[in-house]
Amino acid sequence: MMELHALLERLKLEHLRTQLDGVCEQAAKSDLDYQGFLVRALEAEWRGRQQRGIDIRLRMARFPWLKTLEQFKFECQPSLDRKVMRELAGLSFVDRAENVVLLGPPGVGKTHLPPVSGKMSCLGCPNLGARDESILWKCAGNIHVSLKRLW
């Protein structure tokens, strides 16, 4: 009979393979039946795959930094509407198929929001629904360079 770890490897259940001892211990302590154990085991694999997907999407996005909306210093920019910033960070404009342009003088936080929203999309923000959305973030300087290449 094939060893359990070898079988998990063949089935490409790598996250379960690395967490198997912990899952078995939890199942024994919780006095789970076979179905309950199987649910916990498959949940461990699913969580691992979800996290790996998030990590890959964040790496592929090549954000210059990863920030959160909580890190934004609203007190330094009292003219900004927190509600609008939260709505933009929540990506509801994607569902409405709307474009967003951030305008303002230097130092008001325009470069803070795109990585926040991009991170939310990589994390699987519920506002994106079941569709596979693509979001393109461009800085004005980059757009200018891209347009120059086209001419």
How would you describe the overall organization of this protein?
With 151 residues, the protein is mostly helical. It folds into two domains: 4-61; 69-150, Rossmann fold (3-Layer(aba) Sandwich), CATH 3.40.50. Helix content is 56%, strand content 0%. It contains seven helices and no strands. It has helices at residues 4-10, 14-30, 34-61, 82-89, 92-95, 113-122, 140-150. Helix 2 (14-30) runs antiparallel to helix 3 (34-61). The longest helix is centred in the first third of the chain and has 28 residues, at 34-61. The radius of gyration is 22 Å and the shape is elongated. The N and C termini lie far apart (66 Å). The model is unreliable at 126-131 (pLDDT under 50).
Could you give the topology of this structure?
Blueprint: H1 4-10, H2 14-30, H3 34-61, H4 82-89, H5 92-95, H6 113-122, H7 140-150
Helix pairs in contact: 2-3
- What is the number of strand segments? 0
Indicate the CATH topology of the largest domain: Rossmann fold
Round the Cα radius of gyration to an integer and report it: 22 Å
Distance between the termini: 66 Å
In round numbers, the mean pLDDT is: 77
- For the record, the count of structural domains works out to 2
Q: Give the overall silhouette.
A: elongated
CATH class of the largest domain: Alpha Beta
Element-level helix/strand string: HHHHHHH
Helical percent range?
Answer: 55-70%
User: If helices are DSSP runs of H or I spanning 4 or more residues, what is the number of helices?
Assistant: 7
Portion of residues in beta strands equals under 5%
State the fourth-level CATH superfamily of the largest domain. P-loop containing nucleotide triphosphate hydrolases
